[in-house]
Design goal:
The complex is a heterodimer of chains A (about 350) and B (about 350). With about 350 residues, chain A is mostly helical. In chain A, about 70% of the residues lie in helices and about 5% in strands. Chain A has two domains: about 1-35 and about 330-360, no CATH class; about 60-325, ABC transporter involved in vitamin B12 uptake, BtuC. Classes of the chains: A mainly alpha (about 350), B alpha/beta (about 350).
């Protein structure tokens, strides 16, 4: 008989090790999946994890890892603050959309004027757009005690409709022959979030992601607000005695995650994506939830997790193109990663032991 | 080193490398917006890809990536294909337009073909099909078949392509049935079985006994089948698994001849940038078999219209036609020019409701 025994303290070793074990287990089971599909599992796994980093065309893929990973990290850092305090913002996708719309809207309002202050204004507007969208569930929770999970999630669908409306109406490119979608910001120098060094993948969004990681690290370890966040998550009663004001914490955490998601949207729309279009959002806001947990809600962990997630996306596309793996198989592969992570999480709080036989 | 020059030199090395063994194979890439099993839009593009393989056998190698989101992800997938030596890349969704132009700039030697867009370049062609011709045939059958005089229409996005289809279907339904009304629901998706099924159910509840769809899944067909006594048309693909009822006919996208011709042009070195907009006549738009649920005289009428559209003796937008607001559009006998059709953003007279924006 095998029994689970609760550990007196969560195991630090396992808490660090589970992500690695989960990746390993994903590789093994993913390999089996690919084998069943008739592909060489070693080649498939190799393609996904090796090609983007060290393959023949790594000079192109490595910068792309930054482009793909930056919005994930930026959003996940914001989410992790709330998650640590038990405040569940599930609607980052909507905040990401609103940040992009408001930010791009500000930029397009200046078109075709060229000025140095346009892009900074767009950045502020992007953060503001995301912040406002997150303030709706925050305010409703503080004032009426609504569930922020539901409200923030539902607002994603509202934001999507709003995005469609903007692409077809107010922000539609007047020179676009009636087709949906805004002007392309890539061809509007003052509003373009271009690569800082060409070919490096580094754009302002990547810089912002790194800054956010450092900021979150300092906040959580050196700052009173960070202490309150951690305390509220780990010991809500103690937090109350310590004078934590839940309402302020909710407004701070949701506002912060909304602003960061909005920033991610702005950097994306003004850079890699270039335009507001009906299908502008591709799920970064939801994937970032996975990234936050994969990274153990720790800033450095999130940075690594964002990189890993970006790697499976890019490697997965390469595997599709060169090995003919179906897209669904790649998605299952990514799903396995989260599944194993959550499943193995058990080992952090419990230990497995063989039960001793009771002697009568 | 600058990125573009880096890419260019990589491409050149590749060009040399593939040039050495290139006599053998032409590599053709396809970027798909949906899964190849969607049973509609992407499914038909993939059939085109398979036709290219069947036609050229060992002389060609095809690769594809499915479910690629429109935007930077598409740009990366195209770059990846170009880096890995593709000679010709088909990008099969409107939203791939700017990414295609971006990547084409970096790889001047690779040929690109973008479906349903309007931005051309030295090495970027555009191609689309005159689906509105098929809609005219559909409209005729719909107008004759409806008993409630209510035709439901599931729109995807209010863009010129879709509005053109609604207008064409409506004009021809009205022509054979002056009492017919169109009810239009916007699904804001190309492919979402759940949403499409809901849209179909709503329309059926409102009395529609004909459902036309501009979305790609078979969910509306299933909803119509469940309701009974409602007819539908296959969209993008034949959807013949729902024949003879509810599916009475279909519009089929047939990309195979075009894909084969363009691949051939690359092999022969005769490829040039063109803008193609073909209809029933050229075989790019097919009308799926009209089932026995349709009376013989209606079927004959529909086929006659199809032939007239195919041989060019009739244009689907022939005056007299007015716009929805009552202003004149086309005079007696006048036909619409391609520019107006390409950017169509108004309903014709008689359609109720507004185009959302």
């Amino acid at each position: 008989m095998i029994v689970l025994e609760k550990r007196p303290q969560p195991s630090r070793t396992w808490s660090m090790a589970t992500p690695l074990v989960a990746v390993l287990a994903t590789m093994i089971c993913g390999g089996l999946l690919f084998a069943v599909l008739g592909k060489n599992p070693v080649e498939a796994i190799g393609t996904i994890f090796w090609e983007p980093l060290f393959g023949e065309y790594a000079f192109y893929y490595r910068p792309q890892l930054l482009v793909k990973g930056a919005p994930l990290v930026l959003i996940a850092i914001g989410l992790s603050l709330g998650f640590r305090a038990g405040i569940w913002n599930i609607g980052a996708e909507g905040q990401y959309i609103m940040g992009a719309i408001v930010g791009a809207g500000v930029g397009l309002a200046f078109y075709p004027m060229e000025a140095f202050y346009i892009f900074p204004l767009m950045v502020l507007a992007g953060a503001f757009g995301g912040w406002v969208w997150a303030m709706i569930p925050a305010f409703l929770k503080v004032r009426f005690g609504t569930n922020e999970i539901l409200v923030s999630l539902m607002l994603v669908y509202v934001a999507e409709q709003f995005l469609a409306s903007m692409s077809l109406g107010l922000l539609k490119n007047p020179e676009g022959f009636g087709f949906p979608g805004s002007r392309n910001l890539q061809s509007y120098a003052s509003a373009h979030n271009a690569e800082l060094i060409e070919g490096s993948g580094m754009h302002w969004g990547v810089v912002a992601a790194f800054v956010a990681v450092i900021f979150a690290y300092v906040l959580l370890n050196r700052h009173m607000t960070g202490f309150h966040i951690r305390l509220t998550g780990e010991a809500p009663r103690a937090a109350r005695f310590a004078g934590v004001k839940p309402a302020r914490l909710i407004l701070f955490c949701l506002g912060m995650s909304g602003a960061l998601a909005g920033l991610a949207g702005l950097f994306e729309v003004s850079g890699p994506s270039g335009q507001i279009s009906i299908d502008f959002n591709v799920g970064y806001g939801f994937t970032a939830i996975i990234v936050a947990f994969l990274g153990r809600l720790h800033p450095v962990g999130i940075l690594l997790a964002g990189g890993l997630m970006a790697l499976t996306y890019i490697g997965g596309e390469i595997a599709q193109g060169s090995l003919g793996l179906p897209a669904a198989a790649i998605q299952v592969f990514q799903g396995m990663l989260l599944f194993f992570l959550l499943a193995l999480d058990l080992l952090t709080n419990y230990r497995i032991r063989a039960a001793r036989k009771e002697v009568a | 080193m600058k990125f573009t020059s880096l890419l260019a030199s990589a491409a050149m090395v590749l060009g040399l490398a593939t040039g050495a063994m290139a006599e053998d194979k032409t590599k053709v890439g396809f970027v798909y917006v949906g899964p190849v099993g969607d049973g509609g839009w992407t499914y038909e593009h993939d059939k085109g890809r398979q036709a290219v393989e069947a036609e050229f056998g060992d002389k060609v190698e095809t690769v594809f990536v499915e479910s690629v989101p429109e935007g930077p992800d598409a740009e990366r997938v195209m770059t990846q294909m170009a880096l890995e030596g593709a000679d010709l890349i088909f990008t099969t969704s409107f939203g791939y337009m700017d990414p295609t132009i971006n990547v084409a700039k970096k790889f001047p030697k690779v040929k690109f073909e973008h479906a349903t867009g309007y931005k051309q370049a030295e090495n970027v062609s555009v191609y689309s099909a005159r689906f509105y011709e098929g809609r005219a045939v559909q409209g005729t059958i719909a107008g004759r078949m409806t008993k409630s005089n209510i035709v439901g229409y599931i729109g995807s996005y209010p863009i010129p392509e879709v509005i053109r289809g609604i207008n064409s279907a409506f004009i021809h339904a009205r022509k054979v049935n002056p009492d017919v009304q169109f009810k239009i629901v916007w699904a804001y998706t190309w492919f979402d079985p759940a949403k499409e099924a809901d849209a179909a159910k709503v329309l059926i509840e409102q009395g529609a006994d004909v459902i036309l769809q501009h979305t790609d899944s078979t969910a509306p067909q299933a909803a119509a089948q469940a309701a009974g006594n409602v007819i539908t048309f296959g969209q993008a693909s034949d959807m013949s698994e729902y024949a003879p009822m509810p599916r009475v006919s279909s519009i089929i996208d047939n990309w195979a001849p075009y894909y084969i011709a363009r691949t051939k042009a690359v092999m022969d070195g005769t490829w040039t940038s063109v803008s193609t907009w073909d209809g029933i006549g050229a075989g790019m738009v097919g009308i799926g078999e009209i089932s026995d649920a349709v009376p013989a005289d209606v079927k004959a009428e529909a086929l006659a219209l199809k032939d007239a559209l195919a041989n060019g003796s009739y244009h689907a937008f022939t005056g007299p036609l007015k716009k929805q607001d009552g202003s004149d559009w086309l005079a007696e006998g006048e036909t619409a020019d391609d520019g107006t059709l390409a950017g169509m953003n108004f309903y014709v007279e008689g359609i109720e409701g507004d185009i959302p924006n």
